[in-house]
Design goal:
The complex is a heterodimer of chains A (151) and B (710).
Chain A lengths: L1 H8 L2 E9 L2 E6 L3 E6 L13 E7 L2 E7 H4 L12 E5 L7 E5 L1 E9 L3 E2 L13 E7 L2 E6 L1 H5 L3
Parallel strand pairs in A: 2-11, 5-7
Antiparallel strand pairs in A: 1-2, 1-8, 3-6, 4-5, 6-7, 9-10, 10-11
Chain B lengths: L6 H24 L4 H21 L2 H18 L7 H24 L8 H13 L14 H6 L3 H5 L11 H12 L3 E9 L6 H13 L2 E7 L2 H5 L6 E8 L3 H10 L3 E8 L2 H6 L4 H10 L5 H19 L1 H9 L15 H26 L5 H27 E3 L1 H4 L2 H12 L3 E6 L4 E3 H22 L3 H6 L6 E10 L2 E8 L6 H10 L5 H6 L2 H6 L4 H5 L13 H10 L3 E7 L3 E9 L4 E9 L2 E6 L3 E7 L5 E3 L2 E6 L2 E7 H5 L11 E8 L2 E7 L1 E9 L13 E6 L5 E5 L1 H4 L1
Parallel strand pairs in B: 6-8, 13-22, 17-19
Antiparallel strand pairs in B: 1-3, 1-4, 2-3, 5-7, 8-9, 9-11, 10-11, 12-13, 12-20, 14-18, 15-16, 16-17, 18-19, 21-22
Helix pairs in contact in B: 1-2, 1-4, 2-3, 3-4, 3-5, 4-5, 9-11, 9-14, 16-17, 19-20, 20-26
Classes of the chains: A mainly beta (151), B alpha+beta (710).
Chain lengths: 151, 710
């Protein structure tokens, strides 16, 4: 019993740390299907601005969204560091998310995560579900469900 | 014997035979004397019975067996076909169909005995002239038993020897008395013709359980389960209610001849001290169990019965999740088609080998050789695609052949004489499309039969033939298959639809009167319009048409209505032959590549910008006498055209039915076979993009749905 409890407290979750603008964000690794390099994105007409278009991922056509536009930041500028993270959640079709850079994978125990109340009205904070404290600095943990909601 | 591996074949063939039977019985109704039809029916019924027996589906076997008996008599001329018999036969076929569908879902035939139908079949047999020598074999078990039914028991109903009760039963009896429940003893008599007595008994138990508890049974519940009783069994029931409703419910169970009962003699129970020997004996037979569990066991037993005979498949059934069809969808393939596929695959391997060898050889002509090989490869893959498509193609017959029967039923039900004429049943469509097209077609036929056709009096008054006609015509038109549903009924009253549209605020009065009739009729396909109750009196046309439309559109098809008040209505469904791979014209607009389905393209024209006229602030061109509206794809797609403004425009003339439109593009790339890929639900909001495809270089190109643009 005691053992069970302690593992609960120190539950380790792996996060992929990405950079969007000047900030670091973390995405729970269980949502991530794949990370691919920037490639040609085919624009789709008459869709919301946060949709960049579609890409060919090994024969499948996958839509790509811009988290920057969704957060109300300046549009993406593709660089050699730009990556597309393919996110796959049960019952959802896979979707690509453009990020400025993928930095590393970190292990965060639940003790290192602070669930702070965010002002959900703010575009930038609407998708945050906690702050992870790591030696490389603070990581805003993304609430993927919230990001995909209302797409 | 493990027969589960034959389940697929069994289902396939059963469906085929059923369809066959349906058609034949319909024929029989028209021509009751035709010996060919009768033997055809007999054969099909016989085969069905045999197959059901082999597979261990006892209930289905019983039903088909009785049906076969009827036909056997008909064939021998001992019975005459009449309308009542046809009705029973159709109900019988429906019941068999139900068995088959239950089997395909659960690998088990379920526990519906369809007693009423079996009884009717037997009544038909029994009702025939008595001089028919051969006794109907319909009652194989019960007939001899009935003769031997002991009269002794019947003479003294509800006679209970308390010594027959086990200790548990006596205990339950005492408990019930303590709880101030009334005790009744009931004797139930089963009809002589009853085939599945245990099942009947189970239903009786079930009926009693609603009122109270079964304390004891004679013979024991175990014996009743095993059908070890003649025509009677006696029960002791503890209930808080009156006896009469219980008896009434028991009698309501079909094939129960009678149920008698009275108050159970409590004194006898109270006296106790049963003969120990008798008690032990009984206890041995029916191992300790209280009445509650014994009934539960009956239930299990009854359900399990058919499975015992097909142990192989039954074991699997229980593991499988409910509701999920147990059988994969299959296509029957002509061996010739398979042979041609095999040949093509061999050619493909040869083409690959030559490509490999020309790529490795360094001779100067290797490049031209390579081109040759690629061309060869191209022709092989095209042929391969065609062959695979052919394999997937099935005639729509499998769907439409059930309609004559449906129309017949509707005709009887509504008392409205009508006839269905079908043509082009051999038209082939992709299997997936054929599977989906059934419901919409059925809907439209129902619509025509129910609302389109007038009642006979009305028709006579209008000078039309009394019998209404519905036509179902299918034919291939280029890369499309067209299915028309036509009736000679009253047609759609466009003015009333118009009024309704105004009433419901869908259009302003001004809009409604300015709109073309065809646009008004299209309103019927709107969900809000058709589901509204108020519209149902509006010559009825609206019920579920939106469902039809969405279903057809999901198959990349379209529906069109033409109607003439007083003369009838025609629904036209247009479906693409195939769904996955299409021939497309690749074009460039504003530097982006797009594909347009070739089936929707009529011609490609070079148009001088000076020839573009403006009518009602819309751009049009006059092409050989036809005025065609011009659509600038760059504006629609939201990109910038890179064409020189003064140079000739390339205009792709797209057609949708009879409507034309000119799509202005920057550049043509050429014709190409493309594989349609879905873009997923996130991004499919754009109406005129029907999907995406992946080009040879890995780039994604969007497919423009020219039909949505027009």
């Amino acid at each position: 019993m005691a053992n069970e409890l302690s593992t609960n407290i120190n539950e380790i979750t792996q996060y992929i740390v990405i950079r969007i603008g000047e900030e670091q964000y973390g995405i729970d690794i269980k949502y991530i299907d794949n990370i691919v390099r920037m490639q040609q994105i085919t624009r789709v007409p008459q869709v919301p601005a946060h949709f960049k278009g579609v890409i060919n991922l090994r024969g499948e056509v996958i839509p790509v969204m811009s988290i920057r536009v969704k957060m109300g930041l300046a549009p993406d500028v593709a660089s050699k560091d730009t990556r597309i993270i393919i996110i796959k959640i049960d019952q959802h079709e896979p979707i690509g998310m453009m990020v400025d850079m993928v930095k590393e994978v970190v292990n965060l125990s639940s003790a290192e995560i602070e669930r702070v109340g965010f002002d959900r009205g703010d575009d930038k904070n609407a998708y945050a579900m906690g702050i992870g404290k790591h030696e490389t600095g603070l990581i805003t943990l993304l609430d993927i469900d919230a990001v995909l909601q209302g797409l | 014997m493990d027969v589960s591996q034959y389940l697929d074949i069994f289902l396939d063939e059963s469906k085929e035979h059923l369809q066959n039977l349906n058609t034949s019985v319909l024929d029989l109704e028209q021509d009751p004397e035709n010996p060919d039809t009768i033997s055809e029916i007999f054969r099909a019924a016989h085969t069905l019975k045999g197959m059901a027996g082999t597979m261990g589906f006892k209930r289905m076997q019983t039903l088909t067996h009785d049906m076969e008996n009827v036909f056997s008599e008909v064939r021998d001329g001992k019975l005459k076909v009449n309308a009542g018999m046809i009705d029973v036969l159709f109900r019988c076929l429906d019941a068999i169909e139900e068995y088959v569908s239950v089997i395909s879902e659960t690998s088990d035939e379920g526990d519906n005995d369809n007693e009423p139908i079996i009884k009717e079949l037997n009544d038909i047999l029994a009702g025939k002239s008595s001089e028919a020598a051969a006794a109907p074999a319909a009652e194989p078990e019960s007939a001899p038993e009935a003769a031997a039914a002991p009269a002794a028991e019947a003479a003294a109903p509800a006679s209970w020897n308390i010594g027959d009760l086990t200790e548990e039963e006596q205990k339950a009896l005492e408990d019930a008395m303590m709880a101030n429940k009334k005790l009744y003893s009931v004797t139930v008599t089963v009809q002589e013709s009853c085939l599945l007595k245990a099942a009947r008994a189970f239903l009786v138990f079930k009926a009693i359980e609603e009122h109270g508890e079964i304390i004891a049974a004679n013979p024991s519940t175990q014996d009743i389960e095993d059908e070890k009783f003649d025509l009677e069994f006696s029960l002791i029931i503890a209930s808080e209610g009156e006896l009469d409703p219980i008896l009434k419910d028991i009698k309501a169970v079909s094939e129960i001849a009678d149920a008698k009962g009275g108050v159970f003699e409590c004194e006898a129970a109270a006296s106790e001290e049963p003969a120990p020997a008798a008690e032990e004996k009984k206890a041995e037979e029916a191992p300790a169990k209280d009445p509650g569990t014994s009934v539960a066991k009956v239930k299990n037993e009854v359900v399990k019965k058919p499975e015992q005979s097909s142990s192989g498949s039954s074991a699997k059934t229980e593991k499988k999740g409910a509701g999920k069809p147990a059988v994969n969808r299959t296509v029957r393939v002509d061996i010739e088609k398979l042979d041609s596929l095999m040949n093509l695959v061999s050619e493909l391997i040869i083409a690959k080998n030559s490509l490999v060898s020309s790529a490795t050889s360094n001779t100067s002509d290797s490049s031209s050789n390579m081109h040759e090989q690629i061309e060869y490869l191209e022709s092989v893959t095209t042929n391969l695609h065609e062959s695979v498509m052919k394999v997937r193609m099935v005639p729509i017959e499998s769907v439409v052949s059930k309609f004559p029967r449906m129309i017949r039923d509707i005709s009887k039900q509504l008392n409205k004489p009508m006839e269905l004429y079908m043509s082009g049943e051999e038209t082939e469509l992709d299997r997936t499309v054929v599977d989906e097209i059934g419901d919409p077609l059925m809907h439209m036929l129902r619509n025509s039969a129910d609302h389109g056709l007038e009642m006979p009096q009305e028709r006579i008054a209008k000078g039309k033939p009394e019998t209404g006609s519905i036509f179902l015509d299918a034919y291939q038109d280029g890369n499309n298959v067209v299915i028309e549903v036509r009736d000679d009924g009253n047609g759609i009253d466009v003015e009333r639809v118009r009024q309704k549209a105004i009433e419901r605020g869908i259009m302003t009065e001004e809009q409604a009167y300015a709109a073309e009739d065809s646009d008004i009729i299209n309103l019927l396909f709107m969900p809000s319009f058709s589901t509204a109750k108020q519209v149902s009196d509006l010559s009825g046309r609206g019920v579920g048409l939106d469902v039809v439309k969405s279903k057809i559109e999901a198959l990349s098809g379209e529906v069109d209505v033409k109607t003439k008040l007083g003369e009838g209505t025609t629904f036209t469904i247009r479906l693409p032959l195939t769904l996955a791979i299409i021939q497309a014209l690749m074009v460039v607009v504003g530097g982006e590549k797009y594909a347009i389905a070739l089936s929707g393209i009529q011609t490609i024209e070079n148009i001088n910008p000076k020839d573009v006229k403006t009518v009602e602030s819309k751009e049009v061109i006059n092409l050989r006498g036809t005025v065609i509206p011009l659509l600038r794809l760059d504006e629609i797609l939201g990109c910038e055209s890179r064409r020189e403004p003064d140079s000739d425009m390339i205009v792709v003339i797209a057609k949708k039915g009879e409507k034309l439109a000119g799509l202005v593009v920057d550049q043509l790339i050429g014709q190409q076979e493309i594989v349609i890929k879905s873009m997923g639900k996130y991004i499919n909001k754009c109406k005129f993009i029907s999907g995406a495809t992946i080009l040879g270089d890995g780039e994604v190109a969007l497919i423009i749905d020219s039909n949505a643009l027009i």
